[in-house]
From TrEMBL:
A Gene Ontology term for the protein's cellular component: plasma membrane
Origin species: Adlercreutzia hattorii
Primary localization: membrane
GO molecular function, one term: transmembrane transporter activity
Top-rank lineage group of the source organism: Bacteria
Transmembrane segments: 34-56, 62-81, 93-112, 124-144, 156-175, 181-202, 284-305, 317-336, 348-366, 372-397, 409-429, 435-456
Name of the molecule in the record: Major facilitator superfamily (MFS) profile domain-containing protein
């Protein structure tokens, strides 16, 4: 007879060997990374010329010309709220293909020389389509990167933005100065058109909808539950019944094969009671706020670096600032990503926050070209590491069913930081001067570090 320590055998089909770790450089990962480069290159190429385009071609007032550029960010911010519900409704792959087609069409509309009001409308729509595409492809990539390689995989993926932020502005300014704005718009349209074949190469699980999958999945869950319930009922004693009940979730997970992430997203949406949960993933808000705060400081580089460098007579170094900045990201991200996977966030992100703050201090006291370029390297390492590892922290605590909302939440907070920064800092800069402003941004970096330590400690304690 079985002793009181007897164990209940779970049905044999539940006992499957653990799958081997999935490779990182899959077709999905490579195609998605290239797609992200194409849309990011288009974004940065047009962003750097749009204010000057509105000033020279439309003779628009400075404030209106600036909004012609920043309207893109406004559209992107709105898209972060809509992207997750749209993925849930239409599926990731169909939404991504339509978004890439919209990117091409909207880029081509700049050639029409429409009135300035229409130009702003195009910028808003273009920002919305970019936000949808960037959120969707980030969701696809974070869902296919193996869990044990999240930091490394996201680090490599983020290099697509790094390259876009380096090549796009350089190409935009070069083409505008030598060939005129129409050539910029044609090249930007051709570049983003390459995202369409890249999207067609993707095969995310969310795009695979099998007829009757919901009913089949539900039936399989019921069958697994019945098997476990039967094992519990046949257990010879209380201890054996407890063992069988404890294995219930594992048995269900091993027995059930849901054929579509789309189904998981629908189920997750049904069980969430808060309407806000459709747009915001509460679990990733803390690290998203930390990264958004750092990007608030980063916005000062986008807005005031050129006038500051001109004021101190270092405009030549400033012209290659973002090339060095992007190069620092490109060189360090693969190493920081692998380190994140091996040792966790603290040893990687703490030096990144320190590097950001130190870079702002060096920039504030810059007296020669080398100090400008040194600040660029420090800031590139700091911002690049915090962005990629911050996203890795966010998605590693998120279920596949909520990845779309988690990515949208993370990028939304980055957009808020970059969007609000120029407005608030534009008020402060004339009062305290650019050098003191960058010293203040060093303090912002220190505050972001302090907040990160609180968030990381809380997350560690919750595990």
């Amino acid at each position: 007879m079985a002793s009181s320590a007897a164990k209940v055998a779970i049905p044999s089909r539940c006992e499957r060997p653990a799958p081997a770790p999935a490779p990182l450089w899959t077709r999905n990962f490579i195609a998605g990374t290239f797609l992200n480069f194409f849309i990011a290159g288009n974004y940065f190429m047009l962003m750097v010329v749009m204010t000057a385009y509105a000033l020279t071609v439309y003779q628009a007032p400075a404030a209106v010309a600036a909004f012609c550029a920043s309207a893109f960010i406004v559209g992107t911010l709105f898209s972060r709220f809509a992207a997750a519900p749209m993925m849930e409704r239409f599926g990731r792959l169909p939404l991504l293909i339509v978004g890439c087609i919209a990117e091409v069409a909207l880029s081509a509309l700049y050639l029409l020389n429409e009135p300035v009001g229409a130009l702003i409308g195009v910028r808003l729509a273009h920002g919305f389509s970019y936000g949808v595409c960037s959120t969707t492809i980030a969701t696809v990539i974070t869902s296919v990167v193996p869990p044990e390689r999240k930091g490394e995989g996201i680090g490599y993926f983020m290099l697509s933005i790094t390259l876009g932020s380096a090549i796009g502005p350089f190409a935009g300014i070069f083409l505008a100065n030598n060939f005129g704005y129409p050539v910029v718009f044609v090249v930007a349209s051709v570049l983003v058109a390459l995202s369409i074949p890249a999207a067609l190469l993707l095969r995310p699980a969310s795009s695979t909808k099998v007829k009757g999958s919901e009913a089949a999945a539900e039936a399989e869950v019921e069958a697994a539950a019945d098997a476990v319930a039967g094992a519990v009922a046949e257990a010879p004693d209380e201890e054996a019944r407890e063992d069988a009940a404890a294995n219930r979730d594992e048995a269900l997970a091993a027995s059930t094969r849901v054929p579509s992430t789309h189904l998981e997203e629908k189920v997750a949406a049904k069980v969430e009671h808060s309407p806000l949960a459709r747009f915001v993933e509460a679990g990733v808000l803390p690290i998203s706020v930390v990264c958004g705060l750092l990007f608030f400081g980063y916005s000062s580089l986008l807005t005031f670096l050129t006038p500051y460098a001109t004021e101190i007579g270092l405009a030549r170094a400033a012209s290659v600032f973002f090339v060095v900045y992007a190069l620092a990201m490109f060189v360090t991200r693969p190493f920081t990503g692998r380190a994140f996977d091996r040792v966790g966030p603290h040893p990687v992100m703490v030096p990144a926050f320190v590097s950001f703050a130190l870079g702002m201090v060096v920039l504030a006291f810059a007296a020669n070209d080398w100090m400008i370029l040194g600040a660029a390297a420090l800031l590139g390492f700091g911002v690049g590491t915090v962005q990629s590892c911050g996203l890795a922290m966010a998605v590693r605590v998120t279920s596949d069913a909520r990845l779309s909302v988690a990515n949208a939440t993370f990028y939304m907070l980055l957009d808020v930081g970059v969007g609000v920064g120029p407005i608030l800092l534009g008020i402060v800069a004339p009062l305290i001067g650019y050098a003191n402003l960058y010293l203040c941004m060093a303090v912002v970096g220190a505050l972001a570090l302090a907040l990160f330590l609180v968030v990381a400690k809380t997350e560690k304690g919750a595990r």
